[in-house]
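Mods, move this if it's the wrong board.
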Amino acid sequence: TSEEEVVAAVRMAAANGWKVGIRSGGHSWSCNHVREGGMLLDLSRLNQVEIDEDAMVATVGPGCRSNELDDLLAERELFFPVGHCQGVGLGGYLLQGGFGWNSRALGMACESVISIDYVDGQGELRHASPEQNAGVYWAARGAGPGFFGVVTRFHQRLYRRPQVIGARLGVYPIDSFAEILRWAHRVGPDVPTTVELMFVVSRRLPTTGEPGILLIVAFFGDSEKQAVGDLSFLETRPEGAQLFTAFEQMPLQTLTAETMSHYPLDHFHVVDNMWTHASAEELLPGLNRVLESLPEPPAHFIWMNWSPKITRTDMAYSLEDETYIAMYGLWSDPADETTVTDWVLRGITDLAPLSSGIQLADEN
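Not the wrong board. Structure tokens:
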């Protein structure tokens, strides 16, 4: 519940020769914090938030959840590229890079971490920044679960909240998959950084209750006029949509809730992912096999355009590519475990020759 308790715990572990695992208390598909033996530190109660509007800096504990931070910032018309899902603990999120809302424009969330307070392996409370313990600061932005310390505070750069946040949604039948994939790969590299382009494939979309492809096009900008211009690439979209909404402004909380509709509580999960720069034609054979064996919902597959256009700062985070692909296997009946797990493992193994690596957030 305090930095002092973290210091005492790490010193106890050091004195006994125990390894230390750390969790910030948010979701973790892969449970990286679980270790055989040793000590597990749960930092979920280190969830303090201090916002300095004049300095445009927030100081947050690792147990603070992404959506909780965004609620506080929204009240002040401020912004930080928080995670896409509710319940994401900032500790794990920021250490692994921070692939968040509006990150195509603002960069990985960890790039906006200006310093950290942490407890080292000897149980000493220290500070790391570009000027102090610079090597530790370098590692803290991207080391993920391999970071060699316990972060107790992140000091984060804030941004003015975009004046207009909203989205357009489209629904296509699953048999339009090849056409959608080819189109998305064609337009992806030129999609403005104000826009997130992704689609979800499921045997029952939460939006319609039917099998289909849900195209999600989110916008973060300064005006409705800019939204019209930046989303104009959608005029080239394939025909055959069962539904395609006009642009609608909405709170970020609504976009997050839409994302969470694919992740009902009280389910088991198996997840894996890949970065790739493979073409649509190269990906299609493997992805068609993924869709042919797609389990019952809420299991689903996602494709997301990334096409990084930003020169990254020097930090441990160093792996990204043009396209992000992930398979989310969810089930509630233990009898479905083998089917769902095999779907994810077969699919990602089949696609592995086209993978340039993984994102630490949702790896298996």
